């Protein structure tokens, strides 16, 4: 005799109760600050959380504060910048998070400065004021959800999802923000397997990471001896360079240019604009800067006058630093790889930027 399925009215309440429990669990654990406080510090989400929490806890004795956004290309050392505080009057900090891009900086900035009145200035880096398209698809950058997960809220559901162009990425972003457990799943499983180790690691990072990050010096490795022939698009490497180094240089510096369709400019126009929107009714200054482009200065080209950053520069409280300010740092001996400054380069860059920022700001208030 076959068992008939239970079609009694009790099934509907059971399903409803299960869904209610799931929603409550998801909301309580993953949509509050509870879970982000114990997430794996070395994860993509955890790395962003460490930076934001550190900045939130940092003592700020006055409003003469300058905060740097960016990713690993923003080779800015607040420790070096603050060595010239007696001359500039400003204290510098950074929430630059490796692996993030401008869309992510908006949400990171919102978390670090929720009321928009903490800082005298926000530093926003640019790889190139001309914003020529590159191979990386910033709109559909797949890891951004993982980096930002703890800072994305239900109010961000539609804007964050729709900002992706690919329908699959839009759905992944929508589901990830709505049901964060789908993204946290592996981390949550690891927490349940080793809860004591996780909690001990989180505690240790909370105690020591801020000082470690502030004291970070970078590496003395350099690309000294590298030469680039831009006409032939070839490189001459010192013998000491490994095959991995040569490939990285070829893939980065000598990569074939991508046709410029304005895709990057549209992306920057929106997300730079969102950062500016946060400070439109405040006295906070937004300062754009072009980063050192690489170990060898690329050939020049006609400026893109309709680039997002150049158009936004006309708005109140927005400053565009001279795009050639850091050209002197575009030397092989100041880079550790094709994209990142080494220790001497970082120190020079940080000191130069601190002094230049102080020049464009009003005398500090006391």
Summarize the structure.
The protein is an alpha/beta fold. The protein is built from 14 helices and 7 strands.
Report on the structure:
With 366 residues, the protein is an alpha/beta fold. It has one domain. It contains 14 helices and seven strands. Strand 6, helix 13 and strand 7 form a beta-alpha-beta unit. Helix 9 (181-193) crosses helix 10.
Structural class: alpha/beta
Q: Uncertain runs with pLDDT below 50, 5 residues or more?
A: none
Mean pLDDT: 92
Strand content: 5-15%
Element-level helix/strand string = HHEHHEHEHHHHHEEHHEHEH
Count of discrete structural domains:
1
How many beta-strand segments? 7
> Residue share in helices?
40-55%
Query: What's the overall geometry?
Result: globular
Q: Give me the number of helical elements.
A: 14
What's the helix and strand layout?
Layout: H1 11-30, H2 44-57, E1 65-68, H3 78-81, H4 85-88, E2 91-94, H5 102-112, E3 121-126, H6 144-148, H7 157-162, H8 167-178, H9 181-193, H10 195-215, E4 227-229, E5 234-236, H11 243-252, H12 263-278, E6 285-290, H13 308-312, E7 318-320, H14 343-360
Write a concise keyword list for the protein shown above.
globular, alpha/beta, 366 residues, 14 helices, two-stranded antiparallel ribbon
